[in-house]
Amino acid sequence: MAEVTVRNVKKRYGNVQVMHGVSVDIEDGQFVVLVGPSGCGKSTLLRMIAGLEPISDGEISIGGRVVNNVMPKDRDIAMVFQSYALYPHKTVGENMGFALKIKGTPRAEIDAKVAKAAAILDLGHLLDRYPKQLSGGQRQRVAMGRAIVRDPAVFLFDEPLSNLDAKLRVAMRVEIKELHQRLKTTIVYVTHDQIEAMTMADKIVVMRDGRVEQIGAPLDLYDNP
Ligand code: ADP
Ligand code: ADP
């Protein structure tokens, strides 16, 4: 587990400044949702926490360590993308174990971790299938499984449910909440869906035009708009 601290972070693309001094404190084990209109900077902030996007100014810490110059693979995080980003020519099991394989983790340990994650996500019977043989919800679970096997302190979710139909989205919301309660990890979760934010977050960060507009618990925010 780990806290995440974003301190006065700015971001420029060329001459265009898209983030103007964003600060957010995320406590150990908290489920924090970043919301706000398209283009407000949610994905950019998430990608900066992941290390996929360099920050122009300010500081980001994970678990008390400044990570500004730390490669994504050396941060204690795992990211789940909207597009799932599964390898089409690898099975479910291979997709889930791949990051560990690259790290040189022994085969027996990979198998054990994949089996454990598959049990949590109800994927045990699908380990030999290929992504194209799965439903949208199953693909989403594989993407989460791939993150879980790495046992990160912080999970980063980038609009993970936006490719799913409405009914499945509601079911997956509950699943992700349960996963959080079970693993007790820190989660930073980007969505443009206010209901998702309301139902899932311990704390909501409302962004607008590259700034933090409001931060608070769901009821505090939406009782006093
Ligand atoms: P959100 O996730 O809230 O929709 P983004 O973080 O994707 O917003 O984008 C924030 C702002 O940064 C937008 O104005 C977007 O156009 C701009 N932006 C994002 N990525 C790039 C990029 N690679 N180059 C230039 N501008 C970018
Ligand atoms: P989403 O809103 O689903 O997060 P976007 O369509 O905003 O995705 O962005 C997709 C990719 O394009 C991201 O990698 C983002 O950094 C990049 N991007 C977004 N806006 C711009 C922009 N104005 N110029 C260049 N790249 C951009």
Explain what the structure shows:
By secondary structure, this protein is an alpha/beta fold. It is 35% helix and 27% strand. It contains seven helices and ten strands. The strands form two sheets. Strands 6-7-8-3-9-10 form a six-stranded mixed β-sheet, with helices on both faces. Strands 2-1-4-5 form a four-stranded antiparallel β-sheet, covered by helices on one side. Helix 2 crosses helix 3 (107-120) and helix 2 (92-102) runs parallel beside helix 4. The two termini are 32 Å apart. One adenosine-5'-diphosphate binds next to loops. One of its GO terms (cellular component) is ATP-binding cassette (ABC) transporter complex, substrate-binding subunit-containing.
Helix content: 25-40%
Looking across the biggest beta sheet, what order are the strands in?
6-7-8-3-9-10
Rg over CA atoms, rounded to whole Å, is 17 Å
Task: Name the quaternary structure.
Answer: single chain
**Class inferred from helices and paired strands:** alpha/beta
Low confidence ranges: none
**Could you give the distance between the termini?**
32 Å
Identify every distinct bound molecule in the structure, by name, code or SMILES. adenosine-5'-diphosphate
